Amino acid sequence: MARITIIGLGLMGTSLGMALKRADKRGHRITGFDADVKVARKSKGRGAVDHVEDDLAKAVAAAEVVVIATPVRAVKPVLETIAGHLPQGAVVTDVASTKRQVMAWAEELLPRGVSFIGGHPMAGLETSGPDAAKADLFVGARWCLMPGRHATEGALQSVMAMAVSVGAKTLFIDPQEHDLLVAGISHAPLALSAALVASTSRSASWPEMAALAAGGYRDVSRLASGSPTMSVDICLTNGDAIEEWLGRCIAVLEEIRTHVKAQDAEQLIRLFSDAYSERERWLAGVAAERHPKGKVEVPTMVDSAYRTLFGEAMYKQTKRLFELSNNPTLRSRPETEDDKHGSGPAKTPSK
Amino acid sequence: MARITIIGLGLMGTSLGMALKRADKRGHRITGFDADVKVARKSKGRGAVDHVEDDLAKAVAAAEVVVIATPVRAVKPVLETIAGHLPQGAVVTDVASTKRQVMAWAEELLPRGVSFIGGHPMAGLETSGPDAAKADLFVGARWCLMPGRHATEGALQSVMAMAVSVGAKTLFIDPQEHDLLVAGISHAPLALSAALVASTSRSASWPEMAALAAGGYRDVSRLASGSPTMSVDICLTNGDAIEEWLGRCIAVLEEIRTHVKAQDAEQLIRLFSDAYSERERWLAGVAAERHPKGKVEVPTMVDSAYRTLFGEAMYKQTKRLFELSNNPTLRSRPETEDDKHGSGPAKTPSK
Questions:
Q1: Which of B231, B272, B322, B337 is the best substitution to test chain A (most A C-beta atoms within 10 A)?
Q2: What is the distance in angstroms between the CA of the first residue and the CA of the last residue of chain A?
Q3: Which CATH architecture has domain A3-173?
Q4: What is the pLDDT of residues B256-290, one digit of tens each?
Q5: Domain A178-291 carries which CATH code?
Q6: Which residues face B170 on adjacent strands?
C-alpha cells in the first residue's frame, strides 16, 4: 500500500510498525531509522520494520509517509535534517506528546509540496523502548490530528487511514487546545507520579516504606517509570499549561490538607465523594465508547462517499473544540451548567 | 479449625471469608455480620460466611476469633458493642488502614481475658463491597500485626496462622511507625488521586479532557474510586502523618513547577531520572520478594520449634522498626548513607 518511514524506534515507533504490519502484512514497505543502532536492530527483530537505514536523509528519500516517533525536542533536528531530502508530495506526521512547538517547527522547516499532519495517539505505557512495544497499543485509542497550514486533503486522509488501520479513532483538534487538555490529563498525572516517588524515596524511612508499599503505590507512581527524556521534553515544550495544571493540583492538595488539619469530616466526605462519582462517570463513559450500542466503531472513512463529504464532516467534528480554544484560559467549571451527567448525590459504598 | 466471626462484609471482610474458606473448606465455622443486610446477603452468596447473624452481640457470643473489617471509625462502636459479649479467651483482630486509634480503643474498651491483635493487610483494590471481593486478595501481601498490651502469645499465633493461611506474609510493627509509613505509601497516593480527579473534573474543559484521558489518567486516578467513607476515616484517624506527607508531596510539585517555569532541563532530568530509577529499584525489590531465590516464602510459624523460639524471633523482627519509631519525626534521607541499592547513574532509556 505505501512506502512508510518511521524515525525513532522506541515504544511508539516500534508499536506502530508492528501494528501496521499486522494490519497489512504485505502492502507496506516500512523503513526504520533510530539514532541508536541497537534500538533499531531490536525493532527490526520485533518485526516493526522491513529494513533499517542508518542515514536519516536516505531513510526518507523514497518515502510516501514519514512518521517521526522521537521525544518531542528531537522532532526539530529531525525535520531540519530531512527537509531537503523529502520527495515532492510526501506526507510527514509525528506522534509526540505536545503539539504547539511541533506545528511551528514543521511550518518553519518543511518545504512547500510536503504536507505536515501533527499527530498524537492517546496511547502509551509506562515502559519504553522496542522491547515494550505492542502491536495492539493503539486499538481503541483516540488519535489526535492537526493538519498543518499547507497540508493537502489527500495527506490528511493518508494519516487518518494509517491511524484507523491500527485500530485508533481519529479526532481533529487545535494544537493550542490539545496542549492545554493533555496538560491536565496526561502531564499533571506524570508530575504527580514523579512527586510521589521523589517524596517517598527521599525519606529516611524509605526502606521500610518500600517493603510495605503495594498496589495503590504502584498505580499512582506508575508514570514515573516512563522515559525521563520524554518527560523533560514534555515539560520544556508545554511549560505554561503544565505550570497552570500543577497549580490546580497543588490547590486541591492544600484544600485536602486544610480539611485534614481541621478534621472536617463534612468537607472531606464531599471531596472524596465527588472525586469518586466523577471517576465512575468517566469510567462509564470510556466503557460506553468502547462498546457503543448499535454504532459502527471504526469510521468508514475510506468510503468514497465519506471522501466527498470530508470537508463538512471535519467542520462538524472540530467546530466545538475550536470554539472552546478561542478562549485559551481554562475556565473554572460553572456550578449550574455544563454538567450533562446529572448531579444526584454521590454513591457511597457501604465499605 | 476455628469459630471465626467477621464483622463488616465489604471488600476486605468478604475476601477474607472467601480466602479462609478456600484455605480450609470444612475446618472453619464462619459467622458474618454487616450493618447492611443486603451486603451481608451478598457476602454469603459469595461463599464468604457460613451464616449471617443480624445481632452483633450474638454474632460474637461463641467466637474464638473475631475479625473487625469495617472502615476505621466504625471499629470503636463495634468494640463497645461486643466488649461485654465476647467469650473469655477470645481473640479480636481488625484489618483497618490506620492503627494508633484502633489500638487505643481496644486497650480502653476490651475486657481482660480477651486478646487484641491489631492487623493491617497491605492489600486492597480501588473497588469496594462484596461483589469486588477476591479469594486471592491477600496472596503475597504483607500483613502488619500489632499485639495489644495484654495479648497472649497464643492469640498472636492464631492471627498469624490466619494471615499465613490466606497467603500473606506477617510483619510486626509498632502502631506509630505503621501509621507514619502508610501515610506516605498509601494515604498520600490516595490524596494525589483524589486531587487529580477533583482538579480536572472541576474544569470547564472536563468533557473534552475526559474524551482524551487514557491509561495514564486511569492509573494515577485509580485510588479515587475507593470507598469515600474509608478515605475520610483514614484522614480523620491519621491526620498528623497525612498532613506531613501532603506537605512533602506539595513541596516536590512546587519544585517541579519552579523548574518548569525556569525551563531548567538539568534539574528536570535529574528529578525524573531519580524517580525513574527509584521506582525501578522498588519494582525489582518487590519482584525479588515474590520470587525469592532458595528461600521458604511462607514462614513455618506453626512448627513447635518456632513456637519455642517465638519471643526471640519476634524481638529480632521488630527491633529495627521499633528503633526507628523512637523518633516519630520522619527524617530526611541522608545523602551518603542508608542507600543500600547502590547509586549508579540513572538508567535513561533511549525513547
A1: B272
A2: 56
A3: 3-Layer(aba) Sandwich (3.40)
A4: 999 999 999 999 999 999 999 999 999 998 767 66
A5: 1.10.3660.10
A6: B143
